[in-house]
Amino acid sequence: MFKYTAVIPVRAGSRRLKDKNISKFANSNLLENKIDILKKVNLIENIVVSSDSDQMLDMAIKKNVKIHKRAIEFCDEKTQPFGAVVKHICESVDGENIIWSTVTSPLISNETYLKSLDNYEKNVIKSNDFDSLISVEPFKRYIWNKKKPINYELGLKHLPSQELEELYFVSDGILIAPRLKMIEWKYFHGPNPYKMSLNRIESIDIDDGMDLEIAKFYYEKYFSK
């Protein structure tokens, strides 16, 4: 039996949406919603909320999960680079394999988490074909940088969108890797991840108020009943 620790990283500050990580959602808030979902995944041995916020850590304690009190320099997005934050958190928790679980992807079901663990064990642990797992939303769209198209050509060589190379939006909803490797990489996945496709709804990542309202709409439509 492989052992998993789910890490829920949250912090007090948010640039685009005030108190984003504890925004009201699903009769509670985003943090409590994520804890409740992960508790239903029976393969997860530990759930750890990592935060600088006493309020959020208190919520975790009341939900009977573990906490990691993060120093402000690992939360302010200025003092330490993101890779140092990942390394610090992974060095501060126990477990063989880490599931990095963001609260801003609130529509990922416990069934999808179980599926991700099955994919991780088959494609990473047992086969060694990949070094980690990330959740993605596949898409085929016409994309430009500031100067020119980057995945198609203009004129006679123009392709219908369905013939474009498949690209992937990394949702950051599920990221799984060995804890020691996360420390080594200073990142939450490696250079050769298994890409697990999620549908558009489960791929929703809340960054601002509009994203939050969209997530609430889909929750009420498909999940609340």
Task: Write structural notes for this entry.
- The protein has 225 residues and is of the alpha/beta class.
- It has a single domain, classed as Spore Coat Polysaccharide Biosynthesis Protein SpsA, Chain A (Alpha-Beta Complex).
- It is 31% helix and 23% strand.
- The protein has helices spanning 30-39, 54-62, 82-92, 110-126, 179-185, 209-223; strands spanning 4-9, 24-25, 28-29, 44-51, 66-69, 97-100, 132-139, 167-178, 193-197.
- The longest helix is centred in the middle third of the chain and has 17 residues, at 110-126.
- It starts with a strand and ends with a helix.
Supply the key terms.
31% helix, Spore Coat Polysaccharide Biosynthesis Protein SpsA, Chain A, 9 strands, 225 residues, 6 helices, 23% strand, alpha/beta
Q: What is the arithmetic mean of pLDDT?
A: 95
CATH architecture: Alpha-Beta Complex
- Which structural class do the helices and strands define? alpha/beta
Strand order of the largest sheet: 5-4-1-6-8-7-9
| Straight-line N-to-C gap | 33 Å
- Helical residues, percent: 25-40%
User: How much β-strand is present in the residues?
Assistant: 15-25%
Q: CATH H level: which superfamily?
A: Spore Coat Polysaccharide Biosynthesis Protein SpsA, Chain A
Q: What do we call the CATH topology?
A: Spore Coat Polysaccharide Biosynthesis Protein SpsA, Chain A
Q: Which stretches are low in confidence, meaning pLDDT under 50 for 5 or more residues running?
A: none
CATH class: Alpha Beta
Largest sheet: 7 strands, mixed
Order of helices and strands: EEEHEHEHEHEEHEH
Which descriptor suits the 3D outline? globular
- CA radius of gyration: 18 Å
Number of helices: 6
The number of strands is 9
What is the number of independent domains?
Answer: 1
